[in-house]
Batch of 2 targets.
Target 1
Amino acid sequence: MAVGSFSIFSILFALLSGGANDLLDFVSSDAYWKAKGATVSVEQLAGELKTQAGADVSELIKTLGNGDYPQREEAARKIVAQGAAALPGLEKAADDPDAEISNRARNLIQQIRLNSKANGVRRLMAIRTLGEMKKAEALPILKPLLASKEMFVADYAARAIAQIEGKAPLGRGAAAGLLKADLSLLPADCGVVGQLSLASAKIASVDEAVKTVPPQPGEDRKAVLEQMNTQVITIVDQIGNVRIESVTFGVCDTIGPNDGYFAAIVRGKYDSAAVSAFIRNMGGMPVSTVAGATVLTPDQHMAFAFPGDDRALFVTGATPEKLPVKQILEAAAAVGTKEPAPHPVLAQKEFAPFIASLNDSARLWAVCKVSDSYRGAPVIQPFDTITLLGRQEKDKLSLRIAGAGKDAAAVKSAVDQVNQGVNEAKTGLAQVVQQMPMLKPMAEFVQSIDCAADGKNATMTGTFQGDTGNLLAFPLMLFSARAQAQPIQAPPAVIEPVKPEK
């Protein structure tokens, strides 16, 4: 029986449509504990969550500031050997007035946390599983975790408690102020800017997602799930959980064979050091440091950057010189300094009124100032500005695109071209869905589209069933339709040792 990548991406599609925005959402609790050889019970999970007593490494920490290099290295080795038990002492030492001790303590904290990623994931899965079990005796175990400073722990505990108490969980979206801060990092020469917010409060379920995915001919559904779970567990055991809360994007106002770029600022929570090491190990790609951030460049047209544990940057463009990596990272580094970073996008008259009109109900939006370069596309040529607004209404996303121009006849001609394309898509997708059932939501969205001209203005509306996450999943579906069944070979995690000092 076949285990196709199409099937795996189909399940990911269903999970995203259900509101999943954590990497751990893509693995079921049953599969996780089976892979770990554990028999689940409240008692067993409580044992997983017991805090390891801190080790007394105070004397070893003092030695980190010793003038003798071999002694410093031996102290560092012994501290790392203590694992997570050494973290309380190291966290205090991170603020030591001795710069040598504080710097080395921070490095050792990072190294120990990288070494213990699998244990951190195991704790999160224990918390999540207690919530899924919905047993009241788990509440005394979970409530103390609400005060945890460990990434994701307090949030997972709150959601688990809500499940047990039958309450609605809180959403995982980014705050409005953070979204605005990300928008301010985009360069002034953007012709298109926008944001996608993944603010769902739903708790994803692999089992429920599977039920919504029609099986493919010859598919072994059990094998598909096992492969997907194995792949995700292999990855998260090395990098920890990863959460995506929003995507802020911009497109250069000049696009051509030797011009232009697309930039995406991804906001969420993750261990930037672990993720950058994981990606670096996959392909031996060039690594550099820009404005204090690690930058990976797979080729001359693309760059990934990791400026912190709450942001990541992806940029692609025509040439290396056109990639605004340095500009964006320097703007990110300036956030929070005495001199605020400039807001080149928010100050532009073509963008500012629309952005100011947005409120919390906007899950997806974009605004385009039609540049001379963009006017090369006949459908766009008649317009001066184009806006996109998507609002989540329970289980559907209502989308509205509006364009404003100066010539009513040209606007009407553009609308006629759009309607012709939409009508062709309605017919074509109806046939494709018979072979690719997971494209049904997209086909239904196309069927709902209505495009009309009103003098110099035009509007196009449509309703997309499901959560905003579908919009991220759909490109995966197109990719996976052609992909071969290739298991993900996760590279071994490489922990960089503390650099020796001379």
Target 2
Amino acid sequence: MQRLLVKVLKKTQETRYRDRNGLDYAKYRLRVKVEGSAIGALSVPKGVIGKETTIGREAMLPWGIKTRDLIVLDPGESARVLRPRKPVVDLGCAGPGRIELRSGDPDRDGYPEDVLANQFLAAVVQPHRGARLLSLKDCSGRDRFASPFEYIMAGKYILLGGAEPVLYESGSPGEIWKSEFERGEPVVSDTAVEIDYSRKLKEPEGVALRKHVRVSSDFPGTTELYTVSYAGKKKPAEREDGAGNGEDGDGKKKKDETDVSFGIRMSTRSEGDPVSLNVFELPAGGDLVRVRYHRPPYGRRWRWRDWRDEHFGLKPGFLVARNEGDGRAMAVLFAPGSGCLAAVRSDYPGPEVTIRHAPRKVKKGGRTRFGLAFLIGNDAASTGTSMFMGSVGRGGRGGIPVALTLRTARRVDAPRASVRTATGRRSVTLAAVDVPGAGRIHTKTITLPRAAFPLDCTVRAGGERLSVRLEA
């Protein structure tokens, strides 16, 4: 949700009173005009600037409120200006075995979003904010991402929530996170929905970014495949500054290439105040490192915030963020051994995580790809080499879907999961699936009656034993 900055055009004092502390206040009815976004770096939809509306405010006397004062509207007031009617877009899961694409404005910021839903989740993508994955909700409506849209870091960078793409090295992260991407024509079938989002960047010169998002009917997550292409630098005659003659200081012809290091920055969900209940499980050096970040209820932020990034090399190709309160988890999958680095930091809205790929050089006319997947579940278990997750979907008359997913760096062949239910025990064989850009997983979706819950699911991978417990 975006907040707006307005100017007071007209004021009417409705009443005046004294509070129990002896301070004088006045209640006003104000006619205001929209000047722009409360955060200057963010755009507003066309036709919003100059709109007028009426709001109520209280102010301490003798200062009060004057005409021409600037005021920030609260989220509800901003929503009425940006999108006067209540959004009707459904943020729930699709029915059993179904796949759906919906369009609307669920966050009421005046811009359309895409909602990709299957029987396990609903994913919200914001084309106008870098095509970020804004929200990832399970069938109970619980989101895996924070939404700290009102927070400003150092007065420049705005944490909008979700998962945003970032280009490092000679890239320009700021241009991506707040830019509008062109939306391609969606492809919807009985088994999947896919959409491309693309943008040509001003910096680095000649670079274009295309993001391919896919949600399939039986996968409890969403996959993202990024293609970074490089068209080359402009010729000297095409450049406004007359620079770029293609030669270095010794008169030798330079290679026309660019350095790209791709990353995903996430503001993960934190529950409870003042303590974050997120624990991160990171497979580093063959061991599992658990990192907890707690924030105190008071004190100056710059004194208690942990500005030190903790970095981990993640060769097995996964990271798990789990809520210690309810056990619900999100796993981020990427290509094993691809040189990815995870940086985790305690931040105001909750822990912030960045997964960064190793730098690559892209020659003129060339391209490179980066991929990852976001997987959500009701419970997860991890070791230094493996991750096992259980996901419960939206049920129907035929029962409740349950997806079991194994990611492991160990060599396994058709692993079998033992599922102990309230009515008996069964064995489930997990099938190998190659996730585009994120590597191989083993997964299987089964359907069970509600009476079978709770479930205790166990899988063995190369001598390791991982177990999860699932409730309906």
